[in-house]
Amino acid sequence: MKMIVAVIQPHRLEYVLDELYKEEVNLVTVSECMGHGRQKGITETYRGVKEMGNLLRKIRIDVAVNDDYVQPAIDAIQKGARTGEVGDGKIFVMDLEQCIRIRTGETGGEAIG
């Protein structure tokens, strides 16, 4: 089992979710966050408003998947998030030690689905 964390541009969220759903990756948590990478200090326009400097609006997507779904999930995120511009984001893949479904008590890959 793996936990995939992606940080993407806000306007690409819908595209990423569409691509994940096509790959039957449905267990997704989305959070708004702020941060910057190499583009720090570069002006970005978001919903018609120019933003400068240190922290830019980003979207964090957390996806827990069984091993068979790791590469399809990564490919889907890349396809949906890529614009070819600086600031498209990053994907991090981490081992997921344990998963427990609260409702049923199922554990491991069964809890992920």
Condensed summary:
Helix 1 (13-22) runs antiparallel to helix 2. With 113 residues, the chain is of the alpha+beta class.
Overview of the structural elements:
Strand 3 and strand 4 (49-51) form a beta hairpin. The mean pLDDT is 90. The protein is elongated, with a radius of gyration of 15 Å. It has a single domain (2-112), classed as 2-Layer Sandwich (Alpha-Beta Plaits), CATH 3.30.70.120. It contains three helices and six strands. Strands 2-5-1-6 form a four-stranded antiparallel sheet, covered by helices on one side. A two-stranded antiparallel ribbon has the order 3-4. By secondary structure, it is an alpha+beta fold. 18% of the residues are buried. Helices cover 23% and strands 34% of the residues. The protein has helices at 13-22, 70-81, 109-112, and strands at residues 2-8, 28-35, 44-46, 49-51, 56-65, 89-95.
Integer count of domains? 1
| Outline | elongated
Q: What is the CATH architecture descriptor?
A: 2-Layer Sandwich
- Oligomerization status of the protein chains: single chain
User: Helix segment count?
Assistant: 3
Helical percentage = 10-25%
**Number of DSSP-assigned strands:** 6
Give the strand line-up of the largest sheet. Answer: 2-5-1-6
Give helix and strand order, one letter per element, not per position.
Answer: EHEEEEHEH
Q: Structural class, from secondary structure content?
A: alpha+beta
Give the distance, in angstroms, between the N- and C-terminal Cα atoms. Answer: 11 Å
Give the integer mean of the pLDDT values.
90
The first-level CATH class is given as Alpha Beta
- Note the main sheet: 4 strands, antiparallel
Portion in beta strands:
25-35%
- Annotated CATH topology: Alpha-Beta Plaits
Q: Return residue spans where pLDDT drops below 50 for at least 5 consecutive residues.
A: none
Radius of gyration, in angstroms, nearest whole number: 15 Å
